[in-house]
Amino acid sequence: MGEETPALPADLGPVRSALIEWYERSHREYPWRRTEDPYEILVSEVMSQQTQLGRVVDAWRGFLERWPTVEALAAADRADVVGFWSDHSLGYNNRAKYLHEAAGQVCTEHDGEFPETPEDLEELMGVGPYTANAVASFAFNDGNAVVDTNVKRVLYRAFDVPDDDTAFGRAAEELLPDGRSRVWNNAIMELGGVACEKTPGCDREGCPWREWCHAYQTGDFTAPDVPTQPAFEGSRRQMRGRVVSTLREYDELPLDGLGPRVRVDYAPDGEYGREWLRGLLEDLADDGLVEVDSADGTVVVRLRR
DNA sequence: ATCCCGACCA
DNA sequence: TGGTCGGGAT
């Protein structure tokens, strides 16, 4: 058998109502917290995956203004969706591609009706365990417990749950009040995002769990390790971003026209030359973001539509 | 430098 | 299980 997991408080009633009351009293207002439209929720969740919420608000409004329904998004050109993503600095163009593809799935495989269960939602491209439960919760109030980095940090500190995904999942499920996934998942993530950040603000934010919190009692606010990303400056990701933004501006370019706009030190036969650029473009083509055409001897690159 | 409501693919 | 995927704000 596995190791013993620490017990949550015996009576979960007061723990649950304390958090829900705290949330309803003092949570931040975000526009997606005022809708139950699964399409609008999905857009907000995908945008929020690795981007600060404050930067998502304008993008979310603009996106829904341009593509108000899942049908409208499915009918859009992928290049336009990726273009919007870049314009609003949302990062990770793959997420725009996934969202566009998921919209197509909803229209063709589900007849335009959004799936409502976490299991069915996970079939959508780009929708993993977190996003599936988030949409099921916030749109249909019918999700399981979400486990993201915020929730892990909260459980680790408050209830001494070991840094282990299975343990986090079990503890999160046990805490979730039956039939209240909408407010609960919002609340526990809000707690992690506002009061129980890397540097905690227990008293400042009036954390509702102080009387039960292991970390608050011991003063040890260690948090689970989050893998640190390699530097962005000079990275392959930065170069991919430059390819996409350059192709948006020029529609299509030959290899040696694109190269210098991606790296100032581009030299056709140098270390960062045609061969390097072809490799970069091959990955972008595999990701469905660009097209590389070899017509009559010359290679031309453009964004995929 | 580090953070930010993950998911995909090998 | 690990490598990869953007970019702005602080």
Q: Nutshell version of this structure?
A:
By secondary structure, the chain is mainly alpha-helical. Helix content is 54%, strand content 5%.
Detail the topology: elements first, then pairings.
Elements: H1 12-26, H2 38-48, H3 53-66, H4 70-74, H5 78-87, H6 93-109, H7 118-121, H8 129-140, H9 149-159, H10 165-175, H11 181-195, H12 214-218, H13 236-250, E1 252-254, H14 255-262, H15 274-286, E2 290-295, E3 298-303
Antiparallel strand pairs: 1-3, 2-3
Helix pairs in contact: 1-11, 2-3, 2-6, 2-8, 5-6, 8-11, 9-10, 9-11
The chain binds a DNA duplex (10 and 10 nucleotides) through residues 44-46, 48-55, 85-86, 89-95, 98, 125-131, 134, 146, 148-151, 185, 189-190, 192-193, 197-198, 226-229, 231-232, 235-238, 240-241, 244, 283, 287.
Task: Write structural notes for this entry.
The chain has 305 residues and is mostly helical. The protein folds into two domains: 12-218, Hypothetical protein, domain 2 (Endonuclease III, domain 1, Orthogonal Bundle); 236-303, Orthogonal Bundle (Arc Repressor Mutant, subunit A), CATH 1.10.10. Helices cover 54% and strands 5% of the residues. The chain contains 15 helices and three strands. The protein has helices spanning 12-26, 38-48, 53-66, 70-74, 78-87, 93-109, 118-121, 129-140, 149-159, 165-175, 181-195, 214-218, 236-250, 255-262, 274-286; strands spanning 252-254, 290-295, 298-303. The chain has a three-stranded antiparallel sheet with strand order 1-3-2. α8 crosses α11 (181-195) and α9 (149-159) crosses α10. It is globular. The model has no long low-confidence stretch (mean pLDDT 95).
